[in-house]
Design the sequence.
């Protein structure tokens, strides 16, 4: 990034959001050429093969689970919630950064989001798909999984709406649906761009079909922009509600270690934290390999790293407050739960979590670290590890030592648990690779809207807006 | 296009290179009193709604109605299922306990609002519309990339094949094209 001076990237001074040499046509070319003539077919195929093998592993593990039963997992009597719920919460959390970028930063008119929102929204959808696998397969008798929904059947009974688990069905279902609509609506004008550049009949038909006949009419843009704003306004409280409801699965239970009022905000901060780490982890290789460095600039990465620092510190605060409240409550069970969490048999999980989530991101206080590609890849990796361990710590350490020592136990995952987790990454990356192969990974129309020449009276001189 | 298909004039398509040219031209078309015309841009251009005199959409009202419907459905569904049709006692809680029903009320309000936003947007924009006469113009392919267009339809009561053509020539565009449409 030798040509960019430090000052130009200072977010307060309002420098260009994409690098200055771009005009409308070159933005179209830069993004569409990735889909039309992929520059790195070999690396893509190798990645796709690896990710696809992971997906096959997931399917095989699910088949084995269905055939044999829940006993192939490590769950036991005190620890009835194992990897399935840990992975579910982890994947739902990953999704949150996408909605934060696409909706909340949109409402706050943070225009730097335009280069990364498509990317992050796709990540949201794929992460929620991974998350939705786990509640579906963990119910034991999967052929009754549809009992989660309020559908009439021969027993004439209905789901129990006073249970947070049912709230979860509605929260995550709504979240997935709204994210998908938001993402698809953003894609319509860009699919039309690819349609209009298509040289083969198949491409023209496929992109033409999904772009719904969009022709960039200003009367259509008018309604479209209003609809986009409305969806952003709807997604904003929604994203805050989803992880709050997920946290109710724990917080509503009368179990020391779970039954705390700090859970909803703590879960939301953690979700945003892990989600941004995942966006950085995916965006850095994508921009390098696909020549999008002038659109997803160092400024975007640095802004995301600042959010990682902020949310990571919030998570660290929540960890500290949990211990304070355990002490301050005077409740021996609560106190024991937290002592046991940090110094009991799962101390290694607790300290992995604390190191990855609280200590490592502190390097981002230094600008040099925030702007170093190797550093951000390492930090993003550790944050994701740490956030997975956070859910493991919350779920397993709270359950494994019940109120009576006679009902204490120990949970360790089986190979099936571990392979299912690995397989869920295969599903995620398979979907993600297909996305960058066939769909525009940057919101073309939105990028054009933040170029200086997109504004009347600006001519081509560039500059502030 | 094969010879046996008869075509007639659909309208004129005028191409512009910059946002400024487009906005000035749109003001002129608006002031000339045309009704069935449109601008086509690769991204939403600020100030163009005013230059064209586009009326504010009523979509938000539709979304309110949709969201309210979702809320009512959530309330009635939870009451009917848990308190009326199949009541059962859970941890001694009341059969009909409003606070426990809030999350689902919220979620269905958002879900129905989002559906009405998305499908309302498609409805008001008359999408999907996979065929349109403008797609036959080769230059129109750049409307989704880097060029700006104004189209004036022959259906407009003020439209006149020659007069509108010479009016289009005065708008300052790079090119004016007559777009044909197949007769049905």
Sequence:
């Amino acid at each position: 990034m030798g040509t960019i001076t430090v000052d130009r990237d200072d977010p307060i001074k309002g420098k260009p959001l994409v690098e200055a040499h771009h005009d409308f046509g070159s933005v179209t070319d830069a993004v569409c050429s990735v889909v039309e003539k992929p520059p790195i077919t070999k690396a893509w195929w190798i990645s796709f093969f690896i990710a696809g093998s992971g997906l096959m592993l997931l399917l095989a593990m699910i088949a084995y689970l269905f055939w044999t039963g829940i006993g192939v997992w490590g769950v036991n009597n005190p620890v009835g919630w194992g990897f399935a719920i840990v992975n579910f919460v982890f994947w739902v959390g990953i999704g949150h950064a996408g909605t934060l970028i696409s909706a909340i930063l949109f409402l706050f008119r943070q225009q730097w989001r335009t280069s990364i929102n498509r990317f992050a929204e796709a990540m949201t959808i794929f992460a929620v798909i991974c998350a939705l696998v786990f509640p579906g397969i963990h119910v034991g008798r999967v052929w009754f999984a549809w009992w989660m929904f309020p559908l009439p059947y021969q027993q004439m009974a209905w789901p129990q709406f006073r249970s947070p688990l049912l709230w979860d069905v509605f929260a995550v279902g709504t979240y997935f649906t709204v994210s998908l609509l938001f993402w698809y609506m953003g894609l319509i004008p860009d699919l039309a761009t690819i349609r209009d550049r298509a040289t083969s009949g198949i491409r023209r038909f496929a992109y033409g079909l999904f772009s719904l006949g969009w022709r960039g009419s200003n009367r259509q843009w008018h309604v479209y922009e209003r609809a986009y704003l409305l969806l952003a306004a709807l997604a904003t409280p929604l994203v805050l509600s989803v992880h709050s409801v997920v946290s109710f699965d724990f917080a509503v239970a009368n179990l020391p270690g779970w039954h705390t009022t700090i859970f909803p905000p703590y879960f939301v901060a953690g979700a945003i934290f892990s989600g941004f780490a995942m966006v950085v982890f995916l965006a850095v290789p994508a921009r390098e390999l696909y020549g999008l460095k002038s659109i997803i600039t160092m400024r975007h990465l640095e802004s995301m790293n600042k959010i990682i620092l902020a949310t990571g510190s919030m998570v660290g605060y929540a960890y500290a407050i949990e211990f304070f409240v355990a002490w301050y409550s005077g409740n021996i069970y609560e106190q024991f739960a937290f002592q046991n969490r940090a110094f009991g048999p799962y101390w290694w999980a607790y300290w992995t979590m604390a190191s990855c989530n609280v200590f490592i991101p502190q390097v981002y206080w230094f600008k040099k670290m925030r702007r170093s590609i190797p550093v951000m890849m390492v930090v993003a990796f550790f944050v994701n590890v740490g956030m997975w361990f956070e859910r493991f710590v919350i779920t397993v350490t709270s359950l494994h030592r019940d109120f009576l020592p006679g009902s204490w136990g120990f949970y360790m995952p089986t190979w099936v648990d571990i392979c299912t987790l690995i397989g869920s990454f295969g599903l995620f990356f398979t979907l993600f690779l297909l996305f960058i192969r066939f769909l525009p990974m940057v919101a073309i129309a939105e990028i054009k809207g933040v170029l200086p020449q997109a504004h009347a009276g600006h001519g081509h001189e560039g500059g502030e807006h | 296009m094969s010879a046996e298909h008869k075509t007639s004039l659909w309208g004129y398509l005028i191409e512009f290179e910059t946002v400024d040219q487009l906005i000035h031209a749109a003001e002129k078309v608006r002031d000339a009193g045309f009704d069935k015309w449109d601008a086509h841009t690769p991204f939403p251009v600020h100030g163009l709604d005013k230059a064209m005199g586009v009326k504010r959409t009523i979509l938000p009202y539709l979304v309110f109605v949709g969201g309210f419907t979702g809320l009512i459905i959530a309330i009635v569904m939870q009451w009917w299922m848990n308190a009326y049709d199949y009541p059962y006692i859970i941890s001694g809680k009341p059969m009909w306990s409003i606070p426990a029903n809030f999350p689902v009320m919220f979620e269905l309000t958002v879900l129905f609002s989002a559906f009405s936003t998305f499908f309302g947007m498609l409805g008001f924009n008359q999408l999907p519309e996979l065929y349109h006469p403008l797609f036959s113009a080769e230059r129109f392919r750049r409307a989704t990339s880097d060029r700006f267009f104004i189209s004036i339809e022959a259906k407009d009561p003020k439209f006149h094949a020659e007069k509108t053509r010479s009016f289009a020539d005065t708008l300052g565009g790079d090119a004016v094209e007559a777009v044909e449409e197949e007769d049905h």
